[in-house]
Each structure stands twice: as C-alpha cells, then as structure tokens.
UniProtKB/TrEMBL annotation:
This is diguanylate cyclase. The keyword Transmembrane applies. NCBIfam families: GGDEF. CDD domains: GGDEF. It is an enzyme of class 2 (transferase). Its EC number is 2.7.7.65. Pfam families: GGDEF (PF00990). Keywords: Membrane, Transmembrane, Transmembrane helix. GO terms for molecular function: diguanylate cyclase activity.
C-alpha cells in the first residue's frame, strides 16, 4: 500500500492558474466598467455645464417657466447624444416641474449630472443630463464572458499538457524517492512517516501494530557462488513472493541489502506469529532456481501504543539476529518472551 500523496507542485500551479483566471474574469470587467463610467460621467458633466451656459446666454426669457414658448431655440441647444452615447436632457423650473426635455426615456440604471441654471448668480432652474449604464454593463459582462472562455480554454490546455507532464514527472520523481529500484518495494525513507500515520490510527481506533524484519540466510554465499545478477534475481523473486502473501493494508519495505521490513497494520502478536511462520514456510518451499535452498530468518515485535519506531525496529531486529544465531530458517519474537520455529 503506497504512502499518501501530498499536494504537488502541479496541483499548486493548477490552483494558481484557476485563481488567476477567476480573478481576471472578475477584475478586468469591473475595471473596464469603472473606467467607461468615469469617462461617460466626465462627458455628461462637460455637456451639462456647456448646455446650461448656452441656455442662460441665448434664450430670451430668463425664467425657465416661459421656455415652453421657445421650444425651437431650446431644442437646438439640448442634445440627445454625446460621443455616440444616447443621452436625455431635461430642463426643470425652480419649483421642480419639467419644462423642456429632449431624448427618449432611458433604461435603468442611469448616470445623472445635474447643473443649476443661474441668473445673476441666483438659481432659477436646473438642467439634468442622464445616460443609461446598461450598455456599459452589457459590454462588461460580454468582456467577462470572453475572458472566462479564453481563460478557461487556456487553463484547460495548460492543465492538459504542461501541468499534466509536470504531474507525471513529479510522480516519477516521488516514486523513485520512495521505492527501491531493484524490487519496486517501498524503501526505508518512507517508513517513519508511515509508522507515525498508522500509529495515530491505531491509537484512535484501539488497534495494534506489528513489525516484522527478515533477512535472507547466507545471501553472501549466493552472490559469491552464482554472481550478483543471480542474487538480484533472488531478491526480486522473494519480493514478489512475499508481496503476494501480505495484506493490501500492510507495508512491505526493502530495509537494506537482503533485509526486509513489514509494517503490519491491525495486527496483534498472535496474528503476527501466524504471518511470520507462513512467510518462513513459503520461502523455504519456493523454488528459486538454485541448487541450494533459500531460507529467511525473521524477527517480530508487537508495537505498544506510543512506542517509537526505532524501539520497535530494534526489538524486531534483535529477535531476527537471535534467529540467525539459533540456526536460521526460523523466527523469534522480540520482547520478554521468545518462540522459535524450525
């Protein structure tokens, strides 16, 4: 069972790319709308000021209440468009009633500029110039849609090709860092993190863990008599044999050289004893294609809650060397009690 995956650089880059797409799709249309609104607001303010000055300078009556009699003159001064944008201008009397207006009613929301009409410094009415913001909103929403489509397509292509290749490269590097290249088993560098995770799970659910360490007997003799290629073949065969007979929840690790470790989860001492005896017999009965038999010596240790990895490994390792000294092809249990098997 492989160790758990951490968040990779490809995942972080994917998150950054998606965040940039979302932020861009939101921010750019907002900025575009604000710039366009400010530009339109400036045009309305300029138009309102100039129109108010022309009205007070060119109409005959000084009171806007009488401007209904000067429709032609005033109609020529009011505007229904500025720089290609439809506007509406309405002249209000001092009392607030509309006197003259030009331009069709505009859909909300509106941008409005109000300019006082002054006669010798005294307000006699007001000029209201308005424009609809709906076209600006429509353009900004269309821009957001275009950015989402372009950004989403770009992000999808980036995730599909460069980031996918980066992800595969990361997986390959992680595999090489965590696995033994000869046998394909996990290597000893990942054992500590696995042990901490499984120990925490065992404490949480009141389960037991066991560690088994085993070593090929007289492996140096195999290398000396048959060559290192043959020794490597024995290591690969042994790894495959043991892998097929441990549970998917167990971790089989090449500990170093011809030495292997099994981190057996949900396993008390009785279950661990049955496991090591089964493995001892499997290896002893397996045909490795050599004239001499291949056997293993094993040490087993049940890990108590809160015990450190180093203590458990030392316990199992000491039990394995007791099995070596006792004649090999057997196992010993670490701790206060020991049991040997032929």
């Amino acid at each position: 069972m492989p160790p758990g995956d951490d968040r990779s650089l490809a995942d972080l880059l994917r998150l950054v790319v998606l965040t940039l797409v979302v932020v861009t799709a939101l921010a750019v249309p907002v900025i575009h709308f604000d710039v366009q609104r400010r530009y339109l607001d400036g045009n309305l303010a300029t138009l309102s000021v100039l129109t108010a000055e022309q009205l007070m300078r060119q109409v005959i009556a000084r009171d806007p209440e009488f401007w209904v009699y000067e429709d032609g003159r005033i109609g020529g001064l009011l505007r229904d468009e500025v720089r290609g944008v439809a506007v509406r201008q309405v002249v209000y009397a001092e009392g607030g009633e509309a006197v003259v207006e030009i331009g069709a009613p505009l859909p909300a929301p509106l941008l409005i500029q109000r300019q006082w009409l002054l006669d010798a410094g005294r307000p006699v009415g007001a000029l209201e110039t308005s424009a609809s913001l709906r076209p600006l909103l429509r353009d900004s929403l269309l821009l957001a849609l275009v950015l989402v489509v372009i950004g989403g397509t770009g992000a999808a292509l980036l995730c599909r090709y460069p980031l996918a290749r980066l992800r595969r490269a990361e997986c390959d590097i992680r595999y090489l860092a965590e696995h033994d290249p000869l046998t394909g088993l996990l290597n000893r560098h990942v054992v500590e993190s696995l042990f901490e995770r499984e120990s925490a799970r065992a404490r949480r659910h009141h389960l037991r863990l066991s560690i088994v360490i085993f070593d090929i007997d007289h492996f140096k003799r195999v290398n000396d008599q048959h060559g290192h290629d043959c020794g490597d073949r024995v290591l690969r065969q042994l790894s495959g044999l043991v892998s097929r007979h441990v549970r998917a929840s167990d971790y089989l690790v090449r500990w170093g050289g011809e030495e292997f470790l099994i981190l057996s989860t949900h396993t008390d001492l009785a279950m661990a004893r049955a496991l090591v005896e089964k493995l001892r017999r499997l290896v002893a009965e397996h045909d490795f294609g050599l004239a001499q038999p291949i056997t293993i010596s094993l040490g087993v240790c049940a890990c108590s809650p809160g015990e450190e990895l180093q203590h458990c490994v030392s316990c199992a390792d000491a039990a394995m060397y007791r099995a070596k000294r006792a004649g090999r092809n057997r196992w010993f249990e670490g701790g206060d009690h020991s049991i040997t098997e032929g």
